[in-house]
Amino acid sequence: MEAYVNQNIQSGIATIEFFHPAHNSLPGEILAQLANTIKHVGEDNDVNVIILKSGGDRTFCAGASFEELININDAETGKVFFSGFANVINAMRKCPKFIIGRIQGKTVGGGVGIASATDYCMATKFASIKLSELNVGIGPFVVGPAVERKLGLSGMSQIAIDANTFYSAEWSRQKGLFTQVYESIEELDEAIQSFAENLCTYNTDAMKEMKKVFWRGTEDWDDLLAERAAISGRLVLSDFTKETLKKFK
Q1: SS3 assignment, position 147
Q2: Is the whole-model pTM more than 0.85?
Q3: CATH of domain 4-186
């Protein structure tokens, strides 16, 4: 199957779905499409709430595209690639509509950042998370602020340092990333649909103002995440990272 970013709007609910055949990993092109789609849907007056999901049943998002990481040969290209995740997170932050995250399966690296940037995140019991960046010689620099905002510095540093371990969906719920954890995708989808329909009965202006309150203190993220992207773009050129990435070819 081909990679895609799709949107569908029904009765005030916009569903944005991304997909990539490599476990929903995200190359630069898909990241750009995702950021632009979130921005445009957020500006649509017919939309009251957004559901963000990925295709498939097993993995929500495997993070950065290793194929693109392997081919980065200069710091500027590296910065541009990692800025793709920064642009998605900032688009979600600035979006005037509440974004509900639908996390159906395992989530790694940049995927944890995207889940953390949603306003209300629901998952299945299969949605374990891992920040694996340190394993390949970089770190969760770009997604770190979003993850820390949800998990706290202690929780974020725990999974960033312990880069080999998947942490359970229940651990994520206890830390505040997931609001609810369901036994199956079917139960998750039913709960999300019901929740989104209920949000559509609320005052859209009130929700817009509430979102501003929730994200207060992140006004510097355009600059902060760009700085973090530059750090990752430099580290991905290290001999350690280059040798590690070769194992994934």
Answers
A1: helix
A2: yes
A3: 3.90.226.10
